[in-house]
Amino acid sequence: MSELKIAIQKSGRLSDNSHRLLEECGIKFSNGTSVLKTRAANFPVEILFLRDDDIPQYVEQQVADIGILGENMVLEKNKNVAVLEQLGFAQCRLSLAIRKEESYPGLQYFNNKRVATSYPRLLSDYFTENNIKAEIEEISGSVEIAPGIGLADAVCDIVSSGSTLMTNGLREVTTILRSEAVIIGNKKLSEEKKAILDRLLFRIRAVKNARENKYILLNAPEASIQEICRILPGMKSPTILPLAEKGWCSLHSVVKEDEFWERIDQLKSAGAEGILVIPIEKMIK
Ligand code: PRT
Ligand code: ZN
């Protein structure tokens, strides 16, 4: 019987979230630190633990059928693979940064400068598109120390909170790309493998929907219900149940978490009380 080979990062920023995603999809597997691959007990998949840099090539060559990694790496490696789904974690950006004391007149700053990066392809494309002639120093790690040790004038690196740049006396001047984890796939999967992939993607979407939404319960005077439904536009068809106390009811629905937080004050002033917000485990639309 056919099985789908999934490549995930062995150890790094993507590993925990990749494991968790597969586990939340009901895929059970052991993940000893020394193993390079393992089979799931209850789903036809084999999981390969690799360096993220190698995943695009392995998926192109079908050593793995699909892989989970940052979109930044997918674009840098530029292999012939399909991006199948955005996963919403490992959000970051690829940015240019210069020494914080330098003034920045705009992108032309980079003309004739040396820029250190682990993303030479993306950076060189960006400079070409913007008519900048700079020298690119490719280095594989600790890019942010390059200006401090005289290796480069500026850097192009992944930024998340910005604290690494700050600690190294650098400041972000422009963002080249925004990225998050994605699933990539080989473009020529067999029908059998595609069927397994469809089942997996269905589960992944259910997990993603559940993460973005919350189940909400609140009590409110009957007279306020219409107003509350207006405040929470995501709430299409709430369940409304009468409470033992006359003139009051309880309202249950599913809302987007962001929407809920933005509107909590309006809900309270409309008379909502006893608001409960409960995580959803799976949500199938
Ligand atoms: O060993 P392997 O090759 O598998 O892993 P790796 O060391 O190459 O990659 P890893 O685990 O560091 O990152 C994997 C992926 O996580 C990246 O390709 C991005 O898609 C994503 N990601 C998300 C990040 C960050 N956030 C991030 N902050 N990757 C790297 N960083 C680094 C960045 O390089 C810089 O050194 O963190 C520092 C900046 O963080 P802040 O918070 O100080 O701005
Ligand atoms: Zn890597």
Structure, briefly:
The protein is an alpha/beta fold and about 280 residues long. It has helices at about 15-25, 55-60, 70-75, 120-130, 165, 190-210, 225-230, 255-260, 265-270, and strands spanning about 5-10, 35-40, 45-50, 65-70, 80-85, 90-100, 115, 135-140, 155-160, 170-180, 180-185, 215-220, 240, 250-255, 275-280.
Order of helices and strands: EHEEHEHEEEHEEHEEHEHEEHHE
User: What percent of residues adopt helix (DSSP H or I)?
Assistant: 25-40%
Query: Which ligands appear in the coordinates?
Result: phosphoribosyl ATP, zinc ion
At the fold tier of CATH, the topology name of the largest domain is D-Maltodextrin-Binding Protein, domain 2
Estimate the mean pLDDT confidence: 94
What does the radius of gyration come to? Answer: 24 Å
Number of strands: 15
